[in-house]
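Chapter review. Work through the record for Transcriptional regulator, LysR family before attempting the end-of-chapter questions.
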Amino acid sequence: MYLRTVNLQQLEYLLALDTHRQFVSAAGSCHVTQPALSMQLQKLEEELGVLLFDRKKKRLEPTAVGVKVIQQARHVLREVQLLREVVQVEKGELVGEVRLGIIPTLAPYLVPLFLVPLAERHPQLRVRVEELQSEELVSRLKAHQLDIGLLITPLDDGQLREVPLLEEPFLGYVSVSHPLYAHATLRPTDLSGAGLWLLQQGHCFRNQVLTICAPPDGVHPYSYESGSIETLKELVRRNNGYTLVPELSVLGEAGDNPMVKRFEAPEPVREVSLVVHHGFVRTQLLTNLRQLILEQVPERLHAGRATQKIKWQ
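Structure tokens for Transcriptional regulator, LysR family:
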């Protein structure tokens, strides 16, 4: 079969439909009208001579051949993007779009430090940031749907390259009415689990906290698992109990707030890394982003100092 009119734009629309599984959202993500996207999909199907999506269902579903075409379209567009990136690297340019994913327990504390400065230093660079939990972030990196990830490592995944960035200590955040408040420093053996407030399931930070602490014993007559570290801190401030927080979340409080408790040495830390696919070629962008973040955080948090790293899985 000789293909005359298949173009890259049609393949981009095809992938948008696979991602959103509805025409309105897919068109919005591509910044085109729904009729324009529908027409291009129809032209692509006519050119290929196959139906790519089953439109009879409430939610669009790729047909069997559509799944194979979508998989190949991802490969084609990734190779085209790689071609552009190779040329940009050779020219020494930092231009175009960079898709960056970051986990929710890092985003509120790191994104404000680098997003605007990165755009100001490289005005031709379009930075798109999305908050994702670790499993989804890793999956998108491996599928080339993200360029760079900011998450907790090690991942031990042969498809991905990890560039250590920070080693961020865990700190206690303790209510004035809790017995741990009288402690100058904490030890993991002090943390029985009684009164512990936790992030909800799915957050890697929750898994790390439970590695340090004994499992909660249900001492509360109520239960609330938050998706936000800031919510956990407010629960501790207004109620009894304690939680563990990453140091970036209390940079303005540590040393001044007696509710914040350090651990005795060696402090448990989480390793924060920039993660890319092994095929990522924009190494200068990676280097610049890493340096920019390091400039914004205390040197004591820079990677290469810790001895007790807590795994996230």
